[in-house]
């Protein structure tokens, strides 16, 4: 017997955190009865679990890394008909992105049908690092870099310290290219951090997720993660 939210996550429906929200909202039934208690335990091999009208089936877990192009939505569907990241993955399994990248941000994005895996990687306490390359307006000086390194105040609280490095400064075009590594995953965080120090982002790309990088991939291409990479990510997240 396992907790209902864990069974839902393992079935690849969504992350465990989102599964808990669906249970509380009354969108999950077990053997035909609505369940709203998070402590409910079920036997996934015997009990009939239905999420938002869809019966859950056990799927073999899959793990993909995508080089997300700019202009693509980090979602499984879009009501406006825009391209979504799942369209780039060659599988018929119910995968979803691990976290998200803004539509106008390109780079490394993980997708899976393993809700537990996604939940671990997205949980802020595990501090999985993510490295971005940002082209920003203006020349960024050392004191402003120190602000990012110490953490900057945003409307949803002060950010954790970041690692930053100037890769290029173009005085003629009045732009800078900055490498930034963070372990948080707030909405549009990198963009908001640069805005906070007066240097709006022109272009943004995620280069690394933990030890993973985009080597060998072009925009719109993906590959399956190797078993040792999946294990290494799990180990990285819980250390």
Automatic annotation (TrEMBL):
Entry's EC annotation: 5.4.99.-
Family: Belongs to the pseudouridine synthase RsuA family.
One GO MF term attached to the UniProt entry: rRNA pseudouridine synthase activity
GO cellular component, one term: cytosol
Superkingdom of source: Bacteria
Entry protein name: Pseudouridine synthase
Domain RNA-binding S4, residue spans: 2-60
SUPFAM superfamilies linked to this entry: Alpha-L RNA-binding motif, Pseudouridine synthase
One Gene Ontology biological process: enzyme-directed rRNA pseudouridine synthesis
Keyword Isomerase found: yes
Keywords linked to the UniProt accession: Isomerase, RNA-binding
